[in-house]
């Protein structure tokens, strides 16, 4: 699936789920709530939010949370991802998955996995996973099929 093959209703459903998840984020330390939504290979949407912890490395990113929900629901193939965050002064910077989440997405998504960005006001740029994680290491390097 490419960004161009996502239907308008799929994009809107991803956006709605990610924004709803962002509102549930637990971000008392960074005050940077993030929501994510993953469209799986069965057409279902799984949402997640970031959950911080006083011991900083123990927190969970929104994308990892959404992927966990997808796996719990029985799927291991992501078809599209939408991330909502309000970065930068006056929301001038778009939130993309962090390096660790890019690697987690690589486990469940193809190089052409569409990753869309939004904030609480508008939608932003779109990328493919290979644009955000060029030459990424994945299951195929180990002879495995995710």
How many β-strand stretches? 5
Regions with little confidence, pLDDT below 50 for 5+ residues: none
Number of helices: 4
Instruction: Give the proportion of residues in helices.
Output: 25-40%
Query: Tell me about the biggest sheet?
Result: 5 strands, mixed
Q: Secondary-structure element order, as H and E?
A: HEEHEHEEH
By secondary-structure content and strand pairing, the structural class works out as alpha+beta
Strand content: 15-25%
Radius of gyration: 14 Å
Average pLDDT for all residues:
94
Short description:
With 146 residues, the protein is an alpha+beta fold. The chain contains four helices and five strands, in the order αββαβαββα. The radius of gyration is 14 Å and the shape is globular.
Give keywords.
146 residues; alpha+beta; five-stranded mixed β-sheet; 20% strand
Structure description:
With 146 residues, the chain is of the alpha+beta class. 28% of the residues lie in helices and 20% in strands. The chain has helices at residues 8-23, 62-72, 99-108, 129-132; strands at residues 35-40, 45-49, 78-84, 114-118, 123-128. The radius of gyration is 14 Å and the shape is globular. The chain starts with 7 loop residues before the first helix and ends in a 14-residue tail after the last helix. The relative contact order is 0.17. The model has no long low-confidence stretch (mean pLDDT 94).
């Amino acid at each position: 699936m490419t960004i161009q093959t996502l239907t308008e209703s799929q994009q809107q459903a991803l956006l709605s789920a990610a924004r709803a998840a962002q509102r549930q984020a637990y971000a008392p330390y960074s005050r940077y709530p993030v929501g994510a939504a993953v469209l799986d290979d069965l057409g279902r949407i799984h949402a997640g939010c970031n959950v911080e912890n006083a011991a900083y490395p123990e927190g969970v990113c929104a994308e990892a949370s959404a992927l966990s929900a997808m796996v719990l629901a029985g799927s291991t193939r992501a078809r599209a991802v939408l991330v909502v965050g309000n970065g930068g002064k006056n929301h001038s910077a778009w939130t993309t998955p962090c390096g660790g989440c890019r690697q987690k997405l690589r486990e469940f998504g193809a190089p052409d996995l569409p990753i869309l960005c939004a904030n609480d006001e508008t939608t932003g740029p779109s990328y493919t996973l290979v644009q955000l994680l060029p030459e990424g290491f994945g299951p195929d390097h180990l002879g495995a099929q995710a």
